[in-house]
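fyi for ur records
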Amino acid sequence: MLVRIAGLGPGDPRLLTIGTLDALRAIGKAVVLLAPPDLTSYLERNGVAIVRGMVEDPALLVRGSGDEIARFAQRLDDASLRDGALGLGVLGNPLSDFPGLPALLRTLESRKVATEILPGVPRATLSAAITMPLVPLPPQSSHYSWDDLVEIMARLRLGCPWDREQTHRTLVPYLIEETFEVVEAIELSHLEGLCEELGDLLLQVLFHAQIATEVGKFSIADVVDALSNKMVRRHPHVFGDAVIEDVDAQWRNWERLKALEKTGRRRKSRLDGIPKHLGALQRGQRMQEKAARVGFDWPNVGGVLDKLSEELRELAEARRNPQDDPRVREELGDVFFTLVNLSRALGIDAETALREANEKFYRRFAFMEERAGADGKNLSDLSLDELEELWELAKA
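which gave:
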């Protein structure tokens, strides 16, 4: 039995070496660890059959988990490959990007399994490309790395009085503000501004991590590690052997995997986990989306429109009794909730649609003010007919 451990390069099929491709093709079948779908498809198109199901958690095998290595070795016996050969494709160069390689080699040697190692383009090549800034900095500026940024944040906490007195709670308004500034840059298609705003948002993440580091709770490295583990765990179709047919199947699998996690097991409802402080339209839409994933949904847009008509009739009925303000508010809320359902049924984000409507009203109203001011008048000086005329001009 032979296991040929081959480097797949940084993940781009164009960076797969001819030697690796020929070596895997000569065997004809291979297990690939953490390879992106494009690379896996490329191997299959070039005569390498991908063996799935032999590794439960590729990330753990790469890291050198004893249990995962033992399972892989056992499955080599069970897969009737004792007299054959199998390729094992690893991202990057096995000699530099496969921490679990020594443990794997020892285990295979103990089972009398021969091994060969073929180097590949190191993943550091990709890392260098990622860290190379694309945006030219002004004169007298310096290029900084991720490590530099983490150190800058730590030094700010030590040396700046304002930064030093901040807490998780006092930073909340800034976190919210920076998030909305990112959204605004995206909606205005202001990509240069987006670069800056994303930096401001990243600063908030680093700020919170640094505060937590100082009290021994967690560091930015823990944040990165937790996020990376979560993404790998929730995308077995990208980092493992699972096959996902479409986006709907991906959502179902995502919810199933979330429910198995520690936070998911604590939740009593599928709707738990949606922040209560989220905007009302956004929260309503997220709740409806989660309900729809278990089949609680209108079959088509027509059903939502019928429900909207029903809610408008109930609102009109409630308004007949001017003393019943709570019921009027409740029925109006039902109208809003149904409108959110309509937005979702049409594939439109309700919050975005309302923000765009707000901006449209702002532009038109500002035009009316400017036009009235040019005639030496205030809007409050105009009749309703004159205001309507200005409004039509603004729309035009």
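The chain has 20 helices and five strands. thats all i got for now
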